[in-house]
Amino acid sequence: MSELSLGVRLGVDVGQARVGVSRSDPHGVLATPLVTLARDLDAAPDAVPADIAALAALVTEHEAVEVVVGLPVNLAGKHGPAAVHVKAYAGRLADVIAPVPVALTDERMSTVVASRRLAERGIRGKRQRAVVDQAAAVEILQSWLDAQRRRT
User: What average pLDDT score do residues 4-25 get?
Assistant: First the structure.
């Protein structure tokens, strides 16, 4: 089977209020935090929301070859309302950044794991809320990268 192609990937954790973004190195080994974007929930239906426009700018700036969006599957493996919302968001993003592909990946426990790891490092409360979205985006991208490597 082929190896993961060279190039930076962006990981995205879509929340109700914020979008956490991470990036990988060009070899797809390590995901690192990048930025947290505020969700633009007031954009007109025919306008590109500011957070999606900012993501598109990050794709260009980092010359990303793919964007990996965490899909919140519930513990039973079903797609609830949050998953439907994220799929719509990923579809909108894909339209804006085409031809760069958008992949969806199971992110069942990413925020829980990210919160726990931050707490273990003594980062709690307001400080944790400020970075948990980026940390969740790192978890999403890192687990996706690891899964790609296991396939080769």
Answer: 94
